[in-house]
Design brief:
The complex is a heterodimer of chains A (about 170) and B (about 500). Chain A has four helices and seven strands. In chain A, strands 1-2-3-4 form a four-stranded antiparallel beta sheet, with no helix packed on it. A three-stranded antiparallel beta sheet of chain A has the order 5-6-7. In chain A, helix 1 packs antiparallel against helix 2. Chain B is α+β, with helices and mostly antiparallel strands. Chain B contains 16 helices and 20 strands. Chain B has a seven-stranded antiparallel beta sheet, sandwiched between helices. Chain B is globular, with a radius of gyration of 28 Å. Classes of the chains: A alpha+beta (about 170), B alpha+beta (about 500). The interface between A and B is large, with 34 and 37 residues. Strand 4 of chain A pairs antiparallel with strand 18 of chain B, so a sheet runs across the interface.
Amino acid sequence: MSEFSNTPLKLEDIPDFKDVKLQPIHPGFKNILIIRFSIGLIVTGLLIAVLFVFILLPLWIPLLVSVLSLLIFTMIYMEFFIGFPIRQFALRELDIIYRHGFFVTKETIVPFSRIQHIEIKQDLLMRQYKLYALAIYTAGESTGDLKISGLDLDTAQKLKSKVLHKVKDE
Amino acid sequence: MNDESVFTLPQRQSFQGVFVLFFTDLLKRFKQNIYIIVLPFINEKIRTDYLWLFFALLFVLIVLQLLYSYKYYLNYQFYIRKDAFCLDYGVFKKSNLEIPFYRIQNISIEQNLAQKILGVVGLKIDTAGATQAEVKIKALSSIKANSLKQELIEIREKTTDSTEVTLNDKQERSNSKSNSKVVLKLSISQLLKVGVSSNFFKGIGIIFLVITSTYDLISDLFGIFYEEDDFHNQIYNSVPKTISFTFIFITFLLILGFLITVISAILKYYHLKVISRDDGFEVNYGLFNRQSKFIKVNKTQIIEWETNPIKRLFNISNVYVSQASSGRVNQNKKIGIVGVNYMQFNEIFYTLFNKQIEQDFSYTKSNFRYLFRLFWFQVIMTAIFLTPTYFIFSPLTGYIVGSLIFLFTGWINYLRVKKSYIGFNEHFLKIGSGSIHTKTSYLPCYKIVSTSAQQSIIQKKSQLTDLVIYTAAGSKTIRFIPYHKAVDIMNKTNYYLHQSKKEWM
């Protein structure tokens, strides 16, 4: 470890990631979430209706299915709308921080030096709103990857170039 | 040396390769088309009218397969060029594959049953990449395979030495110049101890799998001749509904599970030998399926030490090493070394990480609220055992078995919570887990890829969180630790990670 010329830091002085002020994602992404949510709701509703009308099932089956899906949709609704302000990210000098989720809040730190590659993605719905997703791939298991959805092009590209620049520096 | 090497010229496999290829392909075809082969035995019309045609066709196909294998063997050529390992192959569509030396991750020599009979070995070259590109040379003489492996390792060494390896590593390497010594060699009696102290539940699981699948198979086959209901009735009627039968049955299962576990452990780890080399360990084991694996110092991410009460009695334990990989690292991909005592583990640890294993860690234990989440496991397991015994045997048996299982799984859950902890210092994370067995995982801070804190709304109320540590060889989760501790660990490991300039993958 001869390469270090750092003056030793006191352990209390190590920067705390909780002190970093996080940045919310684009508010327009909420609309995308609403549309996705509604499509899912309509499709499931139709399926339940088909179950009711065309297939002669004992009444309790479609009832149970509708109650369960109602419950699930309420939870997704809460996840999206109460959870929306929780979706925040921040860049630090050496890493990127992302936080998301209402029922399960996940806070992740990915150091730039551990990033393998980065992609800017966009699906059909996002194209309508001119929003993008930044996918950050790390080595190993895919669960360690990070995807930040709902960024405008400017932010996405800025993030990408900043991260790439940092990755190259290493 | 590599200028005059034979491998600069295109090489074929051993001639036996034709047969290895032929048999493996034939087996594959057979598996794919099993239904067509079974056809004449089911349908009487086909059996009487077209049986000769069927066999003639089968014969032609086998001959064609043999010709294909021969041609494949002729076209399959490999050679070493200045900067890459090259491979030409293909019968109808010819391909040329080039693997740059620096992309080669791992070279292993393996021998399956067919290869053993024909007296050849297989050589596997693993590469790292988004898509799994790997080369499997199916038949080489043992001498040729070893010299090819040696040569590839040497060339790789030369190419990486000039580019990647840091100063630190070079110094370490010159200190321990070319020593290859046997760290561990398992005798049959030790192997027996390993087998006896293995987890029998796995063996019992295998038996259940075999029983259920053969039951399905038998009822499928006989279902053609008998009416389905009759068959089921026969089976159920012949099950005596007595408690003594249950106990005999369970004892039988336990003994069988025990035997299967012991035998499979012996077959798998037969003649285990761990040899320490310059940049890692070579691990050889197996009776029918002889494996040769290499643990590289640089690629090693996590090392796990596993023991259980019986193993402690014998003073042996298992060590698992996880290396960086492109896919998911599951239990099969980890390199297992069994029958290791603490001294030997210490030696392996020291070689891999250049640190003693005994260090000061600051520990954080999982909170006992973790039991609430594990409670589901208890409920489901109880239901799985209670329901069938309740209906097949008697309600009383059901309740007895159910409550026993409930107590047993409760005890297991208690142990799981008790054994779950994380310790850290500036060099390592030490993560404890296990139930009846005890597992201790060590991973160097500079090998961490990312960290995250996962907090459910229930955990939020009690200020607890799950901490996930991602590495290039899979992730580790520590559940229900205090939130501020998790944040502290994330901050500090993140700091240590940036401090280290060592090569991490």
